Amino acid sequence: MATTALPRHVVLNVPKAGTNTYIYREDDGSVVDGNNDMFSEFVKIEIERSKTDNIRVHLRFTYNNRYWQKDADDDSIVAVSTKPEEDTTKPSCTLFEPSQQSDALYFTHVQTGWRVMLNNSTQEFYVDQNSVGAPLEFVDWDTLVKLPKHVAFKGDNGAYLKAYDVDYNYLQFGSDDPNSVLSGHQPITE
């Protein structure tokens, strides 16, 4: 898959039945799955193209400018480097190669040639020589819209939609106060 298909900023998650958690960096540098807030600054990742090969990318958490890489001491994925490293002979190489199969996105660590995996018990990411990789999903951060907790709707008569409880429940554009409890409506996105 060409990197042009990946947006500049993403939120990554591992698709699991019934849960929506997102990838973030822990204080010790570990790259893990488990943040529940898609809008959190901790889950925003910038996809930076390699200067030497447009198929390869660097993955950088934007809130602390830390790049993904393989840990020098083991096979875990950490985000500790403050600058990209394109030299594939160095253990601190921050290059990854994305690939897409069906609806799943996979990353291969370029320096080792191994796919990125998720440890299901610790929720930490690592690279594994004999693995097919952890299937990931991504959302384009720049397309996310966070709705307010309550909204008011104004009708063409200039009045706001209000809930009434007189004899029976109904809605009517009959309020002049958009901040009234009865004029506030909660958006549901699921």
UniProtKB/TrEMBL annotation:
Pfam families: Agglutinin (PF07468). InterPro entries: Agglutinin, Agglutinin_dom_sf, Natterin_C. Residues 39-117 form the Agglutinin domain. This is Agglutinin domain-containing protein.
